[in-house]
Amino acid sequence: MPAPGENLRIDSTRLWDSLMEMARIGPGVAGGNNRQTLTDADAEGRALFRKWCEAAGMTLGVDQMGTMFATRAGEDPEALPVYMGSHLDTQPTGGKYDGVLGVLGALECVRTMNDLGIRTKHPVVVTNWTNEEGTRFAPAMLASGVFAGMHTQDWAYARTDAEGKRFGDELARIGWIGEEEVGRRKMHAMFELHIEQGPILEAEGRDIGVVTHGQGLWWLEVTLTGKEAHTGSTPMGMRVNAGLGMARIIELVHRIAMDNQPDAVGAVGQANVYPNSRNVIPGKAVFTIDFRSPDQAKLDGMRARLEAEAPAIAEGLGLGISIEPVGHFDPVTFDPGLVGVVRAAAGRLGYAHMDIVSGAGHDACWVNRVAPTVMIMCPCVDGLSHNEAEEISPEWAAAGTDVLLHAVLETAQVVG
Is 196 exposed, middle or buried (CB count within 10 Å of its CB: 0-12, 13-18, 19+)? Predict the structure, then answer.
């Protein structure tokens, strides 16, 4: 089927208004959002999304992980649907666009199709994946991971938050456990629009990132066990300081990542010491290491080196140590055919674009294991994300959504 003409564009004002209206739900303290998964704010955001989907004539299905699937019927009842979407949950101090642009951009595509009376052979589905962020219930991309067969549903239901609340119980509490079996749906293709969450597109002056690959990652949770003691009366040579061990291992993480340049990163982003009192030497430290690379050998090599060298640091300080993997996915190669469709759509629309590797994990990374998948990225100011100051322009949002619309229409096959 021919591609849609380059004059076909979404309603950028309507898209931006929808983003701003969703941002009023679960406001943060500094202009962003705190709409963590399975909270009351998440339930409110879901209800608004459902209202909008129903107003657009779509039918809503919900699976047993709470993932929402809003379907616009196609002309061929036997044709597999084309999916697009992302997530509505946020970090505790998250921005207004991370994930949300992908969901509401997809909704805007359907609204535009309705406005113009466009019919497609394949059904089109707008998706809101549950718990992409993983900040309340680890790991990230939990529902899409169950969908792709990476986790069992029982294991996912048993994940607990910092207060010991279970994922399954909280999903039931907010009223969003669906009846649909997770992973039952078959996909013709899946598109995910997302902000870059990095500085490359803005620095290069590009409107669109055509995502060819995604970095793999290892999350390693380290627990160091020492001895609590008074900071004022315990001689330096007699301390068993878990905080000191954490500091030295954080430095090790940095060295490992630097030694694997280019295309490797590593850091500690979550850390806690106990009892966390200003005049008590920490007797325990728990922190999570995040290693990422699009190169499988580098990714696994960084983990192996950490697991070989960190115990020696702990032993030298008299500390006990355990290292537990708490999150992982291999590097991703997105579907080359769909990558070509996105690249061609960006070119046809006249948007400056470039190939890019996703530095963050996304639901598309798991879905890619069971269906042809691709991602589209737009810039964000200074590359800032997972921060309430996260910002994009209405023009960037519109450009990404225009490309999404054209790529989805070509894939879903316009009829008539």
Answer: buried
Confidence of residue 7 (pLDDT cuts 50, 70, 90): confident
Q: Residue 109 and residue 90: Cα distance in Å, rounded?
A: 22
Please report which confidence band the pLDDT of residue 1 belongs to, taking 50, 70 and 90 as the band edges. very low
| Single-letter code of the amino acid located at 403 | V
pLDDT of residue 6: 76
Helix (H) or strand (E) holding 16: helix 12-23
Q: At what angle do helices 242-259 and 296-316 cross, to 10 degrees?
A: 150
Average pLDDT over residues 320-335: 93
* Integer Cα distance of 373 and 359 in angstroms: 17
The Cα–Cα gap between 186 and 62 comes to 15
Residues 6+ apart with CB under 8 A from 239: 226, 227, 229, 281
Measured in degrees and rounded to the nearest 5, phi and psi for residue 196 equal -65, -40
DSSP string, 216-228: EEEEEEEEEE---
pLDDT band at 3 (very low <50, low <70, confident <90, very high): low
Q: How far is the C-alpha of 65 from the C-alpha of 146, rounded, in Å?
A: 8
Residues 6 or more apart whose Cβ sits within 8 Å of residue 237: none
Q: Is the peptide bond before 92 cis (omega within 30 degrees of 0)?
A: no
| pLDDT tens by residue, 200-259 | 999 999 999 999 999 999 999 999 999 999 999 999 999 999 999 999 999 999 999 999
Handedness of CA 23, 24, 30, 34 (dihedral sign): negative
C-alpha closest to that of 95 among 402, 403, 404, 383: 383
Structure tokens at 168: 């399954």
Within 8 A by CB and 6+ apart from 235, the residues are: none
| φ/ψ of residue 236, rounded to 5 | -55, -40
